[in-house]
Amino acid sequence: MVGDGTRCVHAGRVGEVAGEALHAGPVLAAAYHLGPPDGDLPVDFYGRSANPTWRALEAAIGELDGGHTVLYPSGMAAVSALLRLLARPGAAVVLPADGYYLARALAAEELAPLGVEVREVPTPGPWPDSVFDGATLVLLETPSNPGLDVCDIAALAARAHAAGALLAVDNTTATPLGQRPLELGADVVVASDSKALSGHSDLILGHLSCADPELAGRLATTRNRGGAVPGPFETWLAHRGLGTLDLRLARQAANAAALATALREHPGALGVRWPGLADDPSFEVASRQMRRFGGVLSFELPSAAAVSRFLAASTLVASATSFGGLRSSADRRERWGDQVGPGFVRLSAGCEDTDDLTADVLKALDLALDPVLDPKLDPRTER
Ligand SMILES: *Cc1c(COP(=O)(O)O)cnc(C)c1O
User: Fold this and answer.
1) CA gap 182, 153 in Å, rounded
2) How many angstroms does the Cα of residue 101 sit away from the middle of ligand 1?
3) Is 261 in the same domain as 172?
4) In angstroms, rounded to a whole number, what is the distance separating the alpha carbons of residues 333 and 344?
5) Ligand 1 atom closest to residue 79's alpha carbon, by position in its atom list
6) pLDDT digits (tens, 9 = 90+) for 20-51
């Protein structure tokens, strides 16, 4: 078994042919030559059903996830395809109450009116048996976004299976190098590849990876009928970015660890969360089921205005949503309707040098919280 770096660099590599590119370019084709009109159809005949660029990235992610991968044009398209395939009128789907907000909105506003019972459970639980009764699908998000709580995938998969439900894990934050849900007993991995997996903040893409090839086949069929398919160019860019996932995650996690530790010491940053902190509420389960703790951390400043000042004062941290990119970024999540306080910040540590990033963040925090800038603001008391 080779290491993560080797796996990422070589994932999805196809046969070597003299004179052909080391990393083949995107195949931008709608129609392909069919050969004789009465012969067997070639594998590629029309770009919506299959194409070599998808196949290469699906093979690559499938190797890393340990399953059968189907690509989608966005993470939400992947979430939506899974929910639409498995939700049934009169049956229940279980979603994380603290998970990605659009997945919950989709279930509440588009599936519930069709007679699907939508149950929301906070990631840390409690998880009573009644949650699983009559469910067809249990979707976990661990670590959850943006709260960074975790839950025990293996234990919840066993309980979902006992109740006859499939268990899916949104693995966007962890990536396949950080966590391998299929090995822990999950049936499906759901992910947005717009984040760390592709890693350059320059494309939107998603995937589902299934333990069961038959389920992956059904998803590929409904993808073709639904018609929302990823573009080969984005697919190719994501495959190129995937090659450096191991390197990027190593730096991002080192940066997140340094920032979490430094922010802990800062009186103005409260409630610092990173699953890799030894006394974080997520640490015990995370250290059992995760292979790496990732580059995303969260903390709370006294007010929305303090977050604005922090982002204006930082030269390295961009004010941006999304996460997992080369460049550090931070997002005030309350603006998106997440159930968090107005000063809650999700920070995505990028690939800058650790000392530079830590110094920049601490300086920006000092400026943001300087009582001289705002005499009414006492970072220790104002909440
Ligand atoms: C971003 C994200 C999604 C949605 O992915 P898109 O590619 O933006 O559609 C789903 N789940 C999680 C946890 C995310 O962070």
Assistant:
1) 9
2) 9
3) no
4) 6
5) 10
6) 998 889 999 999 999 999 999 999 999 999 99
